[in-house]
Amino acid sequence: MLRRALVLMLAVFPALLPATSEAYELKPKAPDSAFAGKSRPDILGISADTTAETARAIFESSLKGRSDTKADIQRQKFGGTSVSYTAALNFSVAAGAKTGEVLAASFSSPASANRAFFVARNLTFAGDQQPSKAEMVKQVMDKYGTPTIVGDQHLYYIYRGGSVLKVGGKYTEATALAAIDKPLDPRMALKLNADSGHGSCVAVVKRALAKEKTLSALLDDAKGANCDGVLSVRLTSGTPADRAGTAQFTLLDVRRIVSAAAIDGDALAAELSERNPMPKGSAPKL
User: Fold this and answer.
1) Among 51, 100, 148, 153, which residue carries the largest CB count within 10 Å?
2) Region 127-136: what's the mean pLDDT?
3) Exposed/middle/buried for 187, CB within 10 Å: 0-12, 13-18, 19+?
């Protein structure tokens, strides 16, 4: 009886239901990015300029023909509206006789043009398909150019002011290969920190990989980063040690995280205000 009474109340008094904006119209605003023009790096063709729809098509095409592909497409609604969008993509194929692969990307809301701010590609090479580290370093530098700093199994490309930051490392393929398994040069690493104490993107991208890939989860680190963005490539040793067992590519647009979060916050506040307008009455004349 109680359930029937509740249904009847909701039918007679629809205002009791949570308010939603069925025909809400968003006006997208493009967020700032660390990358532009020729300095816009990509992973499998996905850059910070890529929308969720385009990225999904690229992921599906990249893993086409793999029967063991798993896809996790995370969709959500914008505020209290009926506007639905893709917030994250995760595609994977298990390692085994063939090389395993994980593809992931996270996107801002439609208010900030649904653009990528995090992209990752992780490869786990099958035992008989492990490329040499020398070959991997060459391919990375042919595609992305000279890195900012190399070491700790990584080639780091730190972006500031629209280009890759230089801190004194004049890397060739040979010197980068020699440095990759050594600790980061402390003198060069120190130059990546700001006088204010803000950390470099080396630390920021490492922390980002351990966190939920949402604007809110990454925002504090993004605001404190002494850079605009980072591309990192990690190569771990295979068998023998001069082969690559895994290759992990990560693209993090720090500037976009800050900009998109601000745009989305303003849009959500405006949508909430529209859904719950303040009374416009005025005091009567006394």
Assistant:
1) 148
2) 95
3) exposed
Strands 84-93 and 163-164: unpaired
> Strand, helix or coil at 272?
helix
pLDDT at 199: 67
Q: What is the pTM of this model?
A: 0.86
d(CA 143, CA 137): 10
Measured CA angle at 231 (ends 158, 114), to 5 deg = 115
**CA nearest neighbour of 116 among 180, 45, 179:** 45
C-alpha 116: how far from chain center: 6
CB 78: neighbour CB atoms within 10 A?
Answer: 20
Q: What is the rounded CA–CA span in Å between residue 75 and residue 263? A: 19
Which two three-digit tokens encode residue 96?
Answer: 């085994």
The structural domains of the chain, with segments of one domain joined by +, span 43-275
